Amino acid sequence: MTRIIDLSPRLTPSIAVWPGDVPLVREVAMSFAGGDHLELSALRATVHLGAHADAPSHYHRSGQDIAERPLDRYYGPCEVMWVRVQSGARILPRDLPYAPSSPRVLLRTGTFLDPERFDTDFASLSPELVEHLADLGVVLVGIDTPSVDPFSSKQLESHQALFRRDVAVLEGLVLEQAPPGPYTLVALPLRLVGFDASPVRAALISPS
């Protein structure tokens, strides 16, 4: 039987966003409670909400927006790895438990466990790891933290490495229920023209 593992946090007004970013608000235009014949609402929030795909335009002046990104990066064979690193650390190639064999790699660090509380001391990627994964043919890397760079980083070294190597990225994943191993990833971004990211409903499909 096919098993689907949801990697997206629940999106409610309580979900934490990057300090200074736009929190989630549901704006109600019509409602049954208000005597209307249907429910009608609008969403106001950062596009870096919950599980999301960054576009290169988020971290490079000449980068593509999210609508321009090829969808095949966000769908296909994937590998989940659990890495043991300290909070605040950058993950290095030597921290991987083994060399990945899939073109998409999701890293569970366990350093950002509560989507409703923004903890700035999360683990992130090192530029060296991005280069290493790209050399192995990886086209997408995902992580269970709000960013692939440390909270205090202004140079965004790992984001810049992603741009140089044209590696797609997913941030804000929930990987606690995803044991290490091979899966099929489905995490398609919306076709938001001009936008620097898109929320995704990220999921893993397992054959058992």
Description:
- It is built from two helices and 13 strands.
- It is mainly beta.
- The protein has one domain (3-7, 47-206): Glucose Oxidase, domain 1, CATH 3.50.30.
- The strands form three sheets. It has a nine-stranded mixed β-sheet, with no helix packed on it. A two-stranded antiparallel sheet has the order 2-3.
- Helix 2 links the parallel strand 9 (140-143) and strand 10.
- Helix 1 runs parallel beside helix 2 (157-165).
- The longest helix has 9 residues, at 127-135.
- The protein starts with a strand and ends with a strand.
The CATH architecture can be given as 3-Layer(bba) Sandwich
Percent helix, as a range, is: under 10%
Q: Major sheet: size, sense and barrel closure?
A: 9 strands, mixed
Order of helix and strand elements from N to C terminus: EEEEEEEEHEHEEEE
Secondary structural class = mainly beta
Please identify which CATH superfamily we are dealing with.
Putative cyclase
Number of helices: 2
What is the number of strand segments?
13
Q: Please give the order of strands in the largest beta sheet.
A: 1-13-11-5-7-9-10-4-12
Report how far the terminal alpha carbons are from each other: 6 Å
Poorly predicted parts: none
The count of domains is 1
Task: Tell me what portion of residues adopts beta-strand conformation.
Answer: 25-35%
CATH topology: Glucose Oxidase, domain 1
Write the layout of secondary structure elements.
Layout: E1 3-6, E2 25-30, E3 40-44, E4 52-54, E5 75-82, E6 90-91, E7 104-108, E8 124-125, H1 127-135, E9 140-143, H2 157-165, E10 168-171, E11 181-186, E12 197-199, E13 203-206
Parallel strand pairs: 5-7, 6-8, 7-9, 9-10
Antiparallel strand pairs: 1-13, 2-3, 4-10, 4-12, 5-11, 11-13
Helix pairs in contact: 1-2
